[in-house]
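input
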Amino acid sequence: GLFVTDYFTRTPRKLSPFRSFASIELFHFHIPEDTVIAVWNLITFKEQGGTFGDQCPDRSITVYFRSGAPSVINPLHTHFPRDTAVPGSFALTLTWTLPNRTTGVFNVTSPLPGDWFLAAHLPKDEGKISVKGLYEECQYLFQPQLIVQRLVNIAVLYPGHVTEQSMAPHNRSCLYKVFVPSYTSRVLVEVLRCRGAEGCPLWLRVRAKAPPLHNSTALDCREHTPCQLAQDLPFWQHWYYVLVEKHPGVLGTVSFQVTVQLTDCSRPSLARPPFLPSSASMNMPHSFGSAGGLALGDSPPPTSPNDTKHPVPIPVTAHTGERCWPVRPTLRNELDTFSVHFYIFFGPNVSVPPDRPAVFVINLLPVLDSGGVLNLELRLNVSSLCGENVTVFGCLNHGVPLTSGDNTSVTCETESLAGFLLSVNATASLSRLRIPYPQTGSWYLSLRSLCATEHGFEPCTNVTAEVYLRAYLSPCINDCGIYGQCKLLRTNNYLYAACECKAGWNGWGCTDNAEAFSYGFQLLSTLLLCLSNVMFVPPVAIAVRSHYLLEAAVYIFTMFFSTFYHACDQPGIVVFCIMEYDVLQFCDFLGSLMSVWVTVIAMARLQPIVKQASVLYLLGAMLLSMALQMDRHGLWNLLGPSLFALGIMAVAWTARTIRRRHCYPPTWKRWAFYLCPGALIAAAAVLLYAFVETEENYFYIHSIWHLLIAGSVGFLLPPRAKPSRRLGPLPRRKGCGYQLCVNEQEELGLVDPAVASINSICTS
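output
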């Protein structure tokens, strides 16, 4: 055949340590139909400070692959919520081969067409809280590239039509495909009139959706006559691929005929006619060429989930033959993103008769619905059982409905299908099922009632069970509970939702409490972070006693907003917010920086030098507000104003030292008992804040930070300025020779200036 190669690539993204699914990087690819091989080239490289990170440590990178929907991963081995089905995926760990770069390759032979998702993350770290901009962090960038090779001009088989083929000696195989429409109960592929040097040295393989593999359903035509391969309950609205290949060592020409028969569910004894008036009458694409393998232009358009369908029959495998039951559609009601309810006509209470199953279809839109959670709930009305021991079984399958007629074993699986089993009875009348990140397309729910006897389950007689059925799509499982937050995430044009847990809770729905914080621990951490701000009371008293009223006001502002910010910032349920979180955070950060600013400016004692030192206070408040609005977590928001204030203080102290010809402050007691201890306490607080604080020790390390910073202010704040010792006013210098006479009584408004005697105050 003729191969066509396509290339796809994605922009490199920075990987993060895994904490929850919200911290992973998700990549979306689309594999076209008729693809025989897909190769992912996984490129990873390090960066540090805009250059190659040769000095960065090697950290393993885990990549997950899944077709149809994002992977449901659990690298921390946490517990999933009850009644949650976990779809499988494939994981690959990348190791470093070069100091700053590594490449991994992942091959998939005959991949399923459609959407493929890659998820990548770094291993979980210790949760260190680092100050932004303190040092250049190591960044690990990940870039996947996809190369696909697909066949064109694959021969198309028409049901009931015979295709002749002669396989030359240099050819090893022939590939065909046939489109299976909806409501097909059986696909039968047969090889006829096979002639070769050694009888019929052929293998016959069949696979749905993609070309067959070595482990696909196969049949050796040398050992089976006639050479027929059947597929019961095939996937609807999909291509089935037929591969005819020679046995190893066969060199001659082999000629044969291939035919396909599709059994219609509504007519199980008859195959679909080979020729129909139009392709629409058999749900086949309009782009079919002539029989026998002419070029096929476009892939068959799948039926839109929004299309209105009439009740149609489905197959039921039974020992007595095949029967058909109607499929009831559901009405899709979109409330919000990943918030969709599926309503049943004449529901939500449905009747399950004893002689036949009740089947419903739930259609999930491609791409749009795969990022949420599919929820299914069955509730049995016990009063409808009339005292019988009835059990209602439900099978949820993707792509085709499945209802077994075997009463001895109730299962939702076959050789090619795997589904989910639900059951309700008088003892357990409620059953739930949650499927995170479900595959899109049609999901079929088949309900069947059976009565329990001594010999197993048997069909009930004259008992129609009533079941309340609820199906809906939600962003997260139970909205992540009280210890989690459901986040709506986006990667390019794909939306998905995930839980971000707090207070030590983990798991897909934040239900794993193995490392959860107890209520007492949450209360203790909240009280420590809030009450540690009481340490600002002594600095406030010292400032008031020393007549530093502006500084005292700033300390009170800081103490108030720091207390209520930490009361609102708690991850658990011990939370108290008096304002919006963003307002409290801004005021807390502003108060902290302003406390540093006004303390250092007060230490500079600028009043004798600069008559209006309050200008610096106002300027600092405006500049700090602007800086916090730009970036609240930046290093220079704290370091810049502090260094600038320290520079002003150093210039003022140096000027006094030069003018007085003596070190300032002049007394050694001031240095030994106030300045040095205060500077050491402040330095210890900064070191704890920058290098020791982690997520686990945050509540007590940050409380110590509050105590140390407030204590250092009490040491560093200068004493009260001594009053001037001048006995009287300094002698005034004579002016330019004129005098200004002011009538004191007139200025006070006591007498009429027209009649009062002039008692003037003359000044130069």
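quick obs: Residues 39 and 107 are 5 Å apart (CA to CA).
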